[in-house]
Design a protein that fits this description.
There is one protein chain. The chain has about 400 residues and is mainly α. About 85% of the residues lie in helices and about 0% in strands. The longest helix is centred in the middle third of the chain and has 63 residues. It is rod-shaped, with a radius of gyration of 67 Å.
């Protein structure tokens, strides 16, 4: 709803401007070509302003823009008069009387914008385009008397815009300068005085000075834009060089990492060998510590139980003797078979002579080996006792006849 209210102001102003055009053309009986040009200017300027307001979603038009809209309507009337002058003469006082307020209001809209705080980018651009078109129309009117070179004043703004299409750096935002407003006002005053024709000898001089000031103003802006472009180009070049350096550094880092993955370094191999040698030394140290621990445990056991050590030594000795005993008995039997038979009879004097396996328990045990040292000791003691008893019995049985015979 607010945007619709904003649109009503330009539309209403355009309608008022169109009514003024109709009134002037009817009163002065001017050419219809000029009236058509005036109405066409009002329609186009109003449409462009409405489109800009719609794109920016402006909450309000603002008092300063309202003043500029009124100026645009006056410029439309001036446009119609200038176009009509090419067909038939028009009243010069009427032309100057409408152009002078349009030029004067150029200072009013800026003052209103500053006082009301309604200054905006759209308002500044709108004001600049209205000024440029007014200077173009006035220069076209004065060019009929002073020459075509006066058109340079009105066409210079549009030439600058056209150059910006080919050279984008010319479209950059310019810093605000009060001198531009002074030069614009000087152009309008010089063209208005030249249009009046009061001092024909000075008209050309005034317009020439105004053109020089305009060239100086545009030249200063172009130089500033060129320096800005050079500075930006240098900055862009430095940034591009920095980016290339970073890219090269990243690529070198990637190549170095890939080389490290593909080809192991000599230092890594030496470090691995050193680590393996350290592991071996640690293993030897652990083994020595374990051996010392076992030795301490054995020493402690010996101090606490000395008899166990003696018994263990006897068992080891008996086991070694038991392992050698069967071989020793077999060797003796091979050397003296009769001895083996005597031992068999001694073990079992009442058993059969040729059946040593049945009664030769000790012999059998000696042949195949004792199961343990204690069993060997017991068997050896039993065998000795039996052998002694057998010897005693054999001596008693055989000794009687020997004594009697003696």
């Amino acid at each position: 709803m607010a945007i619709q209210k904003v649109h009503l102001v330009p539309i209403g102003t355009a309608i008022l401007g169109a009514a003024a055009v109709v009134a002037v053309w009817v009163a002065c009986a001017l050419s219809w070509i000029g009236g058509t040009a005036a109405l066409l200017h009002l329609a186009i300027s109003t449409a462009l302003l409405l489109a800009a307001l719609w794109r920016r979603r402006a909450p309000s038009l603002g008092w300063a823009n309202a003043v500029t809209v009124a100026r645009s309507a006056l410029v439309g009337v001036v446009t119609g008069l200038v176009v009509a002058s090419f067909v038939a003469p028009v009243p010069t006082p009427l032309l100057v009387g409408i152009a002078a307020p349009a030029l004067a209001l150029d200072a009013v809209d800026g003052w209103v914008a500053r006082r009301t705080g309604s200054a905006s980018e759209l308002g500044a651009r709108f004001d600049m385009e209205v000024d440029a078109f007014l200077l173009l129309v006035l220069s076209a009117y004065v060019a009929r008397t002073l020459g075509a070179w006066v058109l340079a004043i009105g066409l210079m703004r549009y030439a600058f815009v056209a150059a910006g299409w080919a050279l984008p750096w010319l479209r950059a935002q310019l810093p605000p300068r009060y001198w531009r407003k002074v030069v614009t006002a000087a152009q309008g005053i010089a063209l208005t005085l030249a249009a009046l024709g009061l001092v024909p000898a000075l008209a050309g001089l005034l317009v020439g000075v105004a053109l020089a000031l305009l060239v100086e103003s545009f030249g200063r802006d172009v130089v500033w834009l060129a320096r800005r472009r050079s500075g930006h180009a240098a900055c862009a070049q430095r940034e591009g060089r920095r980016d290339r350096e970073h890219h090269d550094a990243d690529r070198l880092d990637d190549d170095g990492l890939r080389h490290e993955r593909e080809v192991p370094r000599l230092g890594d191999a030496e470090q691995a060998d050193g680590e393996r040698e350290d592991d071996r030394e640690q293993a030897r140290d652990h083994e020595q510590q374990a051996q010392h621990g076992r030795d301490r445990e054995q020493a402690t056991a010996q101090r606490e139980h000395p008899d166990r050590e003696h018994d263990a030594g006897d068992r080891v000795e008996h086991e070694e003797h038991a392992e050698r005993a069967p071989d020793a008995v077999e060797d003796e039997e091979q050397m003296d078979p009769a001895r083996g038979e005597k031992e068999d009879r001694a073990e079992d004097p009442h058993g059969p002579r040729n059946a040593p396996a049945a009664s030769g328990h000790v012999h059998t045990r000696f042949r195949f080996g004792p199961p343990s040292a204690e069993a060997f000791v017991r068997d050896t003691s039993a065998r000795r006792k039996e052998f002694n008893r057998a010897l005693d019995g054999f001596g008693a049985a055989g000794g009687g006849p020997a004594v009697a015979g003696g």
